[in-house]
Design goal:
Elements (H helix, E strand, L loop, with lengths): L12 H9 L7 H11 L4 E5 L5 H11 L10 E4 L3 H13 L5 E3 L5 H9 L4 E4 L1 H10 L9 E4 L2 H6 L3 H10 L5 E6 L4 H10 L4 E5 L9 E7 L5 H12 L4 E4 L3 H13 L4 E4 L5 H12 L5 E4 L1 H4 L9 E4 L6 H8 L9 E7 L4 H11 L3 E3 L5 H21 L4 H11 L4 H10 L2 H8 L34 E6 L9 H12 L9 E3 L4 E6 L3 H8 L3 E2 L2 E2 L2 E3 L22 E4 L6
């Protein structure tokens, strides 16, 4: 179907102007197919993936038929999460509507003011909407249109009872529009009791993703994926990226690691206070943050234009999860990249997942330290050329000529670059990341040297480990342990490699020639009401196959939480 520009639709002039101001002139497929059906008063069951323009598909018909001025509620839009509700309310607000936004965690006083002012459109989450119904502050007796957006997610989050309560409060004579990415049996049951003789619109159905998205995978052992991510971020240089983790703790640890590596990053998860979540999302939208580390539930409602990359730190649990994640990029015709770090034991499962999603995958060689430095050198050269093109300060030229009168040009540049943090980053950035090897024949088990604690992972070549007598039972987390190490030794955070926190102790990786000194500095350092005890651990004996990087075995009770390069 050839799209008809909005200027040729029978839209109010102010709506056409608002669309044009946002640079929207041509409808998406779901918008064009829904418009005549909604205008004709039909109930709709719309199956469409994320990022296809669903908000305007129901928003434009609602705004077209909305009564002027304040009055009773005429349209109710129900969404599963606070972020999605805020996103839809903002989109309708840009079109000139003043919807009342009702969501959990929001201030009641502000929501009551919006309702009492006569907002014709109410956008909200099921729990808070039912709360206002119970308080008598929300009257849906005159509502003419109901929209259930991301209805499958509403059911997945357990809001079936709340939906029944809302349906009871709505007039029987109304128009209902149900949008969902999937049509599982519970969705069919919801449609049966919500819609009357519905028209079905299927757009971009099935487990498919936008063709504008490139899918890339890097094979890496799990314990080295943070190193791999740092290298890939340096090489790819995403404008805006969302990084997906499975748990809240993972998001916070990764965001802290990325900030330590010089990236603008923040975590987003469901345990954060609403005000903090809002500040984080607004900073991301304004490009004050470039990397957003999020869980699936927290990121479901994120709709930020210009997200260039999505990173999966591990293989998602299902194809549906993968589709929802990568749908954060490649939106509205933009291009994007989905990057997944795949552990060897997850490789087969990931191939099956992509096969069901009909995705073409490119497996790339993992960038190493020299790749990162080469990319940073290229960027540094571009910066210098741009400065030259913008013109040279005559005063600097006089100073340069004076220096060159008694210095060699290369020596003068080296002296200047030594004080330039960007130039130093070119020399120091990048990590060597072990690449998984093809499977080998089973080798006899290698036992650790005497004196090593059970579960201590092996140190990397050129490093040695130091054991400290504090662990999770002492309230130690990654941030407190790093601060303790820096305070006791005076060394920067980048001097410490892998940190493994056990229940009663922790193991820290440092350079081989620093291990004795670090243990000596930690020994007797105050911690809580006691003093630290520390000792260097014996090294593992050499493996029978040279060049094969030993992989730590998973041990109950231990949790590797940080991997950085041990630098000089």
């Amino acid at each position: 179907m050839q799209p008809v520009p909005f200027a040729q639709w029978e839209l109010r002039p102010e709506l056409v102007a608002a669309l044009a101001e946002q640079g929207i002139t041509v409808p998406t497929e779901v918008q064009q197919r829904c418009w005549p059906l909604v205008q004709a008063g039909r109930d709709l069951l719309v199956q469409s993936r994320t990022g296809t323009g669903k908000t305007l598909a129901f928003g434009l018909p609602i705004l077209q038929g909305l009564s002027a001025g304040p009055g009773p509620v005429e349209a109710l839009v129900v969404l599963p999460t606070r972020e999605l509700a805020m996103q839809v309310a903002n989109a309708l607000g840009r079109m000139g509507a003043g919807p009342a936004l009702l969501y959990g965690g929001g201030a009641y006083a502000e929501q009551l003011r919006a309702l009492r002012s006569g907002a014709r459109i109410v956008v909200g989450t099921p729990g808070r909407l039912c709360d206002h119904l119970s308080r008598g502050t929300l009257d849906l007796g005159g509502c003419r249109t109901l929209v259930l957006d991301e209805a499958d997610e509403i059911l997945d989050l357990g809001f079936a009872d709340e939906l029944d309560r809302l349906l009871e409060a709505l007039p029987a004579q109304r128009q209902s529009l149900l949008f969902s990415a999937t049509l599982a049996p519970d969705m069919q049951a919801l449609a049966a009791k919500t819609l009357r003789d519905p028209e079905t619109v299927a757009v971009s159905t099935g487990l498919s993703v936008a063709v504008e998205i490139r899918h890339v995978a890097y094979e890496v052992h799990r314990e080295f994926r943070s190193d791999a991510l740092s290298n890939v971020l340096h090489v790819e240089r995403p404008d805006l990226a969302i990084l997906f983790c499975h748990t809240r703790a993972e998001t916070e640890e990764l965001a802290e690691r990325l900030r330590g590596d010089g990236f603008q990053a923040a975590a987003l998860h469901g345990d954060m206070a609403q005000a903090e979540r809002t500040r984080t999302l607004n900073a991301f939208r304004r490009r004050q943050l470039r990397l957003l580390v999020a869980t699936d539930v927290a990121a479901r409602g994120i709709d930020v234009r210009g997200v260039t990359h999505v990173f999966n730190l591990a293989v998602p649990q299902s194809a549906e999860t993968y589709i929802h994640r990568v749908g954060r990029t490649g939106r509205a015709g933009d291009s994007g990249m989905a990057v997944t770090f795949v552990a060897p034991r997850d490789a087969m499962r990931f191939r099956r997942l992509l096969a069901s999603a009909k995705v073409e995958l490119q497996v790339r060689r993992l960038p190493q330290a020299e790749d990162v430095r080469s990319r940073l050198r290229e960027s540094y050269h571009e910066t210098m050329c741009r400065r030259l093109a913008e013109g040279v300060d005559p005063g600097f030229r006089v100073l340069a000529e004076e220096l060159l009168a008694y210095m060699e040009p290369a020596d003068a540049l080296c002296a200047l670059l030594g004080g330039d943090s960007a130039a130093r980053a070119v020399l120091e950035a990048g990590l060597e990341v072990p690449v998984p090897k093809p499977p080998r024949a089973a080798a006899p088990p290698v036992r650790p040297a005497a004196g090593r604690p059970a579960g201590a992972p092996p140190a990397r070549p050129g490093t040695r480990q130091v054991q400290v007598n504090v662990g999770r039972r002492d309230g130690v987390i990654l941030a407190t342990l790093v601060r303790l190490l820096r305070s006791a030794t005076g060394m920067p955070a980048r001097a410490f490699g892998s940190i493994t926190i056990h229940p009663h102790s922790s193991v820290v990786e440092v350079r081989s020639d620093e291990a004795e000194r670090v243990a000596h500095l930690l020994e007797g350092h105050p911690f809580g009401s006691g003093l630290l005890k520390a000792r260097p651990l014996p090294a593992f004996p050499a493996r029978p196959h040279q060049g094969v990087v030993p992989r730590p075995r998973s041990v109950p009770g231990s949790r590797p939480v940080r991997r950085v390069a041990a630098r000089g």
